[in-house]
Amino acid sequence: MARARVAVIGVGFIGEEHLNALLGHEQFEIVGICDQSPALAAARSQQFSVPVYDDHTALLEQACPDYITICTPHYSHSSIAIDAMSRGVHALVEKPFTVSASAAEECIDVMERTGMTMGVGFVMRLHPAHRKMRQLIEAGFVGDVVR
Fold this sequence. Notes:
This protein is 44% helix and 18% strand. By secondary structure, it is α/β, with parallel strands linked by helices. A 5-stranded parallel beta sheet has the order 2-1-3-4-5, with helices on both faces. Helix 4 (77-86) runs parallel beside helix 5 (101-114). It starts with a strand and ends in a 9-residue tail after the last helix.
């Protein structure tokens, strides 16, 4: 079976976690990374022995991944996901998904139009401490939560 070609866009703390997780699976081949910080991207490239690209557009066009994980600042999530799906690349977006409902709707429209898959990572939602916090909030322990 061929390994899935994956790239990580944004290689700060969360991106590094994605790289570590991907390296632990033989089904994946990391074909590239990029980050808004060239120094950080170069360091991660050396740390993980993966190719580095100047930006996500170059990565999508040259590395030809099957899918990407987007670990950039949240305001850039939707535009990168749209760029990827428009090029036939599936996308996993770190939370928060977008900064506006209209951006989310645009992503969903592009996903439906292109037939690509897009997901949003909420990996900590089932952590026992978070479940307990939810129970306390629902029980009114902390008062009304407004944001």
